[in-house]
Amino acid sequence: MTFPINKQLSDYPNIGSFPFHLSINRVDQHFPSHRHDFLEFSLVVEGYGYETVNGQIHPMQPGTFTLLLPYQVHEITANPGSPLILFNCMFGLELLGDPAERLLLSDHNPFLTHYDLSAEQSEIVSQKLQGMLREYEQSADIWQPLLLKGELQRILAFLYRLHPSNSDVLPNVSELTSKTALPWAILRYIHTRYRDPLTLELIGAHFHCHPSRVTQILSQHLGVTFVTLLQETRIRHACSLLATTEMKVTDIAFEVGYESFASFSRNFLKLVEVSPTMYRASMRV
Which of 63, 130, 224, 264 supports an S-S bond with 117, CB 3.0-4.6 Å? Predict the structure, then answer.
């Protein structure tokens, strides 16, 4: 398959109940600048080109492994006549667990934006991803999420161990509210509590800062307003429920945090550009 021209909430409907997607993709020329609210990593299998992450350019070639935090803006360009073939994995913050989550959210994040793996290292990661892809493409059962999460943790541990100088001392919880980590801590807070009647005041109180500071952080680091982030998160999870369950649309509206079905319908139409009923029907074709 190839990447979609534009990533919409409906592109990955299964990210919700189990926020994980893995595929092999081909970029023939250029994949435009985009962002999303989950983590993403890729491993180049074939081809040559370059990737721009938050304005910084690095080459892409066999063995290039890229690890992106939520809301980092990136784009990919393949060299003429050398299409890029790569594994691409997207997953929610909630799948990480300790110690990976605290390491990624700390000021001293030991993970690099990209790694130039040796042929041997690349083969190790490629074999892990091939196994994950086989598991992911099977019919889901009670063991699948556990197995995929385990392999995801193994890949992150492998990357961490590439640099023996990394300290094994985990950051304290208090470090997660420091300047660098605060945007991602707020993002995770919203992701885990989007069903609740969240307000800027509640979030500010939780992180011991003024609501206007929360607004500034979201705008500066994530490029969105609090309302937009909350609505996108709720609607993305509604898309998953519409595509994968038989729940009534009204029940889904309340399940993802809306107190008014009219408000849910209005926001769904605004973000997905079709009604919830039409979206469900399109996913059943």
Answer: 63
Last residue of a domain, one of 160, 187, 204: 160
Q: Which residues contact 216 (CB under 8 A, 6 or more apart)?
A: none
Domain assignment present for 22: yes
Average pLDDT estimate for 236-265:
88
140: tokens are 């889901």
Query: Which of the 8 DSSP states describes residue 82?
Result: B
Tell if the pTM clears 0.70, that is, is over it.
no
Among residues 238, 242, 283, the alpha carbon closest in space to that of 264 is found at: 238
Q: Which structure tokens are listed for 184?
A: 């991602």
Report the C-alpha gap between 174 and 47 in whole angstroms: 43
Whether 105 and 172 have beta carbons less than 8 Å apart is answered as no
The torsion region of residue 66 among left (phi > 0), alpha (psi -120 to 50) and beta comes to beta
Q: Does residue 250 sit in helix, strand or coil?
A: helix
Q: Indicate if the pLDDT at residue 269 is higher than 90.
A: yes
As a whole number of angstroms, the distance between CA 243 and CA 233 comes to 16
* Model pLDDT, residue 98: 66
pLDDT at 191 > cutoff 80 = no
- Are residues 236 and 180 located together in one domain of the fold? yes
Q: In what order do the strands lie in the sheet with 30-34?
A: 30-34, 74-78, 49-53, 56-60
> Is 166 within a domain?
no
| Residue-range definition of the domain harbouring residue 58 | 9-160
Of 25 and 176, the one with more pLDDT: 25
